[in-house]
């Protein structure tokens, strides 16, 4: 049987390959008894027993309850030891920080959320975020952190973990976010665009469907996460899906990125707040005007809630945003041909009022073949969505991408995952 040195850093012998596969089969639920593993892999009973014993010895698997009998002796099931490590997700939005700690199966053990302006800058923001993570880990039992995922509300070079010219994040361009977390927690870190985390969460709900989907987030800003055949599509440099800065013909609004006429400057949450203030100054009345007059801050969420409650100004703003979003999404539908479009974010929380307008424009402007089986719906509006999506991304990177590099160590290390 192979010793640790022959397993190290992806030495892909037949034994190592089958051992890795068995661990992942049990982890994913593809096969959870020794007879099932034998049937799926074609390995003999003795070989399966050797591989399973090795995985148990290394701490990845353990025997669990008995499976139902099919006529003979009931087989013992195996379970992946999800309690051995923790996954930390830190989802940074334009106006909030959301952190969570889960086990290796994605069960959320602790989470926290607080308001925060991302424009405060990277040093203060990450100091606040890591303090929140420290507080959650202090509530835990001391189990080692195996992976950390950080979501940022702007373009990210996934390979380096650095934001690239993010429009709403002054001071963040090129900042080494990954190293801040890796040095503090001694665990591998992946940094991605926040919408990719949401798309990964939707992918996890359809893990067996090999889905092509678009997650379109319409919040303070606008972005899209693309999943192709079950894989996140980031493009050559991580900029895929950045639809918020597509030019809207005829628009002269200046965007926060410095350009003129971007979709975000017309249909994003901050643009709706801007237009609401302008309309109120021109004499508009109703719920939004009353909120502003009472000193309440107008936010994208306030606009959406007011639209749901029938405020004419809010309805007109939300519907106008949805029309522009629908036109942009229609172009993506023609190029990408997804099976599912999920629309989420603060503005989209207006629900059917927003979604009906998006659907109308998409079906009007897209090719019939591209929309023949297309499903367009709103997100689950689950507050923990970014955490669940970050966990899915972490599990993909740990067990589907980097597992051969760290398996021999019994747990992932920064050096092994990075191939150092």
Automatic annotation (TrEMBL):
Signal peptide: none annotated. InterPro entries: ATPase_NBD (IPR043129), ROK (IPR000600), ROK_cs (IPR049874), WH-like_DNA-bd_sf (IPR036388), WH_DNA-bd_sf (IPR036390). Coiled coil: none annotated. PROSITE patterns: ROK. Belongs to the ROK (NagC/XylR) family. This is ROK family protein. It comes from Microbacterium algihabitans.
């Amino acid at each position: 049987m192979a010793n640790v040195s022959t397993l190290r850093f992806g030495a892909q012998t037949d034994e190592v390959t089958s051992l890795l596969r068995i661990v992942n089969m049990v982890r994913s639920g593809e096969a959870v008894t020794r007879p099932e593993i034998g049937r799926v892999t074609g390995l003999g009973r003795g070989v399966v027993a050797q591989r399973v014993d090795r995985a148990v010895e290394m701490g990845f698997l353990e025997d669990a309850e008995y499976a139902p009998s099919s006529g003979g002796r009931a087989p013992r099931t195996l379970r992946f030891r999800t309690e051995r490590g923790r996954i930390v997700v830190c989802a940074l939005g334009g106006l909030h920080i959301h952190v969570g700690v889960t086990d290796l199966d994605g069960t959320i053990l602790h989470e926290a959320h607080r308001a925060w302006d991302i424009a405060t800058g990277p040093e203060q923001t990450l100091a606040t975020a890591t303090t929140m993570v420290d507080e959650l880990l202090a509530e835990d039992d001391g189990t080692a952190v195996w992976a950390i995922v950080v979501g940022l509300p702007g373009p990210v070079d996934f390979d380096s973990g650095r934001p690239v010219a993010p429009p709403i994040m002054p001071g963040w361009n090129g900042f080494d976010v990954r190293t801040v977390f890796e040095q503090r927690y001694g665990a591998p870190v992946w940094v991605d665009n926040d919408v990719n985390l949401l798309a990964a969460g939707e992918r996890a709900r359809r893990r067996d469907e090999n889905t092509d989907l678009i997650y379109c987030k319409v919040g303070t800003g606008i972005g899209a996460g693309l999943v192709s055949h079950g894989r996140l599509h980031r493009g050559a440099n991580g900029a895929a899906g950045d639809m918020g800065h597509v030019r809207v013909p005829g628009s002269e609004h200046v965007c926060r990125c410095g350009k003129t006429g971007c979709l975000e400057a017309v249909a994003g949450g901050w643009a709706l707040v801007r237009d609401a203030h302008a309309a109120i100054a021109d004499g508009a009345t109703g719920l939004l005007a009353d909120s502003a007059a009472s000193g309440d801050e107008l936010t994208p969420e306030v606009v959406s809630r007011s639209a749901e409650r029938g405020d004419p100004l809010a309805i007109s703003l939300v519907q106008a945003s949805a029309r522009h979003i629908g036109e942009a999404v229609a172009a993506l539908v023609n190029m990408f041909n997804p099976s599912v479009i999920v629309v989420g974010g603060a503005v989209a929380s207006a629900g059917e009022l927003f979604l009906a307008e998006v659907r109308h424009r998409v079906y009007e402007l897209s090719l019939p073949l591209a929309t023949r089986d297309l499903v367009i719906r709103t997100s689950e509006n689950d507050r923990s969505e970014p955490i669940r999506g970050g966990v899915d991304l972490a599990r993909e990177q740990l067990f589907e991408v980097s597992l051969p590099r760290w398996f021999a160590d019994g747990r992932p290390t920064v050096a092994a995952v990075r191939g150092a």
